[in-house]
Every structure is written in C-alpha cells, then in structure tokens.
Amino acid sequence: MSSSKPPNLHEIESISLKILADLGNFTATSYWEEAPTGYLAARAKKAGLNVAIDPYGNLLVLKSGTDRSAPGICFVAHTDHPGYEVVEQDGRKLTLKTLGGVGLFAGRAGSSVIVIDDAGNRNLAVITGSTDASDEFGKSREADGWLGTDTVYADLSDDVELGRLPRPVVPNLVDFEIDNDIIRMRAADDLAGCAAVITALESIASLSTVGNVYGLFTRAEEVGLIGARMAAKSMLLPMDTIIVSVETSSILPGAEIGKGVVIRTGDRTATFDHEAEVYLIEAAQHIKSNSPEFKIQRQLMSAGGCEASAFKAFGYSVTGTAFPLGSWHNRGESGVEPEFISKEDFVGGTVLIAETAKLSGTRPQGILKRLSTMHPEEGDRLKVGRDTGG
After folding, report:
1. Which terminus of the chain has a lower count of CB atoms within 10 Å, N or C?
2. pLDDT category, 188, cuts 50, 70, 90?
3. Domains 9-81+186-366 and 83-171 equal at CATH topology level
4. Tell me: the pLDDT tens digits for 213-256?
C-alpha cells in the first residue's frame, strides 16, 4: 500500500533545488542532451531505481510496483531547450541553424551566445544577423515575436577551430540563480520538469506502490516532440500507463507565477483525459488536507504543445502539470533573457508529483464516481405532476 504521509516539504525543496542548479550548468539543446541525461541516470541509479536508454536516447527510469497487472504512471519531461547548431565555419564567421522556436532577438545583431567545440569548451560568439523571413508563415511568426527564419549568423570572439560540425550553441545567459522566490536560468523549460520528476522518484524509491512508477526524460522535444513520439510509437511504456507531462509553460490568465503549480487540462494541440487527471486531483486534495495553504491552479495551457499530446496521438491516457514561466524560450521584453519561475510553484509541483506517484495502480475515480451514483428518491420530485407519456 502507498504511504498516506505527504512528502517532507523541506527535504523536497533542498534536493530539488540542488538538482535544478546542477542541471542548469549543462548547455543542452535539441539533439545535444547527453550531459543532462547522464546526470539524471546517475542519480536514478544511486537511488536504487532501474535505468534504461531506448534506441532514440530517451532515458527511462523505473520504480517497480507490487502488481504487474495494475496500470502504471509515467512522468515525462524533456532534456532539451531551444538553441542553435553551427552548420558552417569560416574562421570566426559562423552560420547557425535554429533548433526550436526562438524569439526575434535571438536572430538580431548583438545577442551573445555560447558555442561548444568538440572538446566541450565554451566559446563566446555574438549574433550578427539572420536571413529575412521569406514566406507568409515566417512573417506571421515575426509579427507574434518569434524569429521567422532558421538561418542566423555569428562571429566568434576568438580564433577557435570548433571541430567536426554541427556543434551546439546556446544563449549566453545565467545557468541558475535564485532571487527571493524567483528562479532564473537559461533553460527552465524543461530542466525544471526534469528536476521535479527525478526528485519525486528519489523520494518514493523505498516506498511500496501498487503500479509501476516511471520517469521518462526525452530528447528533441523543441523540434517536434521527436523523442516522445518515438517512445510512444514504439510502445516503450505499456498502453495502460497513465502519462503525466511535466512542463514549464508560458504564463497565461489563470496560470500565473507564484499562484501554484498548474494541473494542465490540455495544450495547443488537444484536451487531455479525466481518467488521468483524477490522479493529480486526488493527490492535490490529499496534500491540501494536510497543508491547507498548498497552492494549485488548473488551466488549459494553450501557448504551446507538450509531450502529453504526443502520447495521446498513439492512444495513451494523458494529463499534465506545468510551472508557469516568464520569458518563455528566452523571449524578454528588450532582448534574449533568462527564463524565470517561482520557487514555491516549483517545489509545490515536485511535491504534487511525488504524492501522485504513490497512487500508481489505484485507479482513482474522483467526483465522477459520486455523480454517477444515484438514489431513487433524488428524481421523485421531478416526476411529481408530470405526464410521462404513458
């Protein structure tokens, strides 16, 4: 049976922030996620969890349940963040291709970036410009504040031979810092999700759960949910597994920084599933029964897509959580800026994941169970004086 005691808040906070700070040191972008994946795998092994890498480089962590026939639950987060790749080098002059959606300033002269050479060294470069948006789609993207082209130019600050191309490039922003309740970092999306999931798994590693509990850390999310789609298509997880996307997503009305983790009812692509969401709802109710001040929001996060939709496309039952995010994809008001989230939202979301994990295999019913239970007398007054047509 699962434990009825909520996770220790102070312990969760200390561990999760340490993990997030460690992950922030990595310069990961799409296709270049080996460092955060390796770090997460090492932590999982140390905690006694089972670890596997699928053919696409996704990391799957498992805490086995007691009943193999019970449906498991999987928390999914991605290890990449928008950035660039160097595709051509001519001395100090570089041609870059964007990886994922980046803001207008990411292609404007003066923005600073970090180029990783084949020895793993960080080299500074400055963006010098980009090609013009050449079609209506690109122009509409730029009208909405996104860069409408995928070709960007930069100059290295020093004479460096980068080695075999392509090479990864990321914005030159702070790795990780905390100022009161605000966490700022280059890649909160989705390293915050990764940190929350691995912390939660570590916290329940020695507990008994009915169903399996998984953590899936995927690759290349920012360029089309590729890692998640490959995992879903190959049925890496049993089809009755409940999928919980753990994301860091742009603020919206009803999904605001400092007001709690968001239970995500859908994304830009699809609405999600009640039979999956009820796990989160029941866990949240249990936490609030012990800690009434626990904050939570519930919203359809329509700004972007997430990995829940990738799994839903292949027939899985899905839901999600999100940490409300400022400067999404480093789109600041005056330039390329660090993303930021609330520390309280982050820690609360980690606690919610840990508590939800304990419910694996229990098939909670939630309020719909009560609504579907009818007493005969409930309809009696509605029938009084009515011609039933008999």
Report:
1. C
2. very high
3. no
4. 999 999 999 999 999 999 999 999 999 999 999 999 999 999 99
Would you say 192 and 323 are in contact if contact means Cβ atoms under 8 Å apart?
Answer: yes
Q: Which CATH class is domain 83-171?
A: mainly beta
Give how far the C-alpha of residue 130 lies from the chain's centroid of Cα atoms, to the nearest Å: 29
Q: Is the pTM of this model over 0.90?
A: yes
Give the CATH architecture of domain 9-81+186-366.
Answer: 3-Layer(aba) Sandwich (3.40)
- Of 4 and 112, the one with more pLDDT: 112
Alpha-carbon gap, residue 249 to 224, rounded angstroms: 16
- CB-CB contact of 353 with 75 (8 Å): yes
Short-list 100, 99, 102, 79, CA closest to 191: 79
**Closest CA relative to residue 329, chosen from 189, 223, 224, 217:** 189
- Size of the chain, expressed as the number of residues it contains: 390
Q: At what angle do helices 188-204 and 34-46 cross, to 10 degrees?
A: 10
Residue 24 burial (CB < 10 Å; 0-12/13-18/19+)? Answer: buried
**pLDDT tens profile 87-132:** 999 999 999 999 999 999 999 999 999 999 999 999 999 999 999 9
Decide: 138 and 118 in contact? Cβ < 8 Å: no
